User: Which sequence fits this backbone?
């Protein structure tokens, strides 16, 4: 699965929240066809059949779940574990998890 750009992810997230391409176009001040392009690229990258299917696949991959999105668009440490993969083999996950644990330690000390 290819990584989504910030705009592609925003379109999928907006669709998950019930917004239309037209709503986003008005909000962002761009043409609706441009927003549709972002949506279609996200659909293709996720291997989905529709924007609704893209929302489902993005949720399953942890892309739209704020708790798992510690490492940008990357699904993250916990998503690897749930798929039965070794997250320590993924450098962004390993680095992100290390930074997260250090931040959590600092919070508990103060």
Assistant:
């Amino acid at each position: 699965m290819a990584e989504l750009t910030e705009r592609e992810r925003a379109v999928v997230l907006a669709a998950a929240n019930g917004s239309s391409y037209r709503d986003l176009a008005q909000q962002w001040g761009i043409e609706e066809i441009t927003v549709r392009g972002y949506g279609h690229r996200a659909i293709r990258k996720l291997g989905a059949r529709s924007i609704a299917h893209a929302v489902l696949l993005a949720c399953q991959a942890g892309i739209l779940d704020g708790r798992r999105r510690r490492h940008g668009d990357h699904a993250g440490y916990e998503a690897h574990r749930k798929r039965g993969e070794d997250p320590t083999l993924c450098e962004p996950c390993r680095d992100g998890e290390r930074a997260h644990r250090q931040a959590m330690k600092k919070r508990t000390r103060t």
Summary: The chain has six helices and no strands. Residues 71-110 form one domain. The two ends are 40 Å apart (CA to CA).
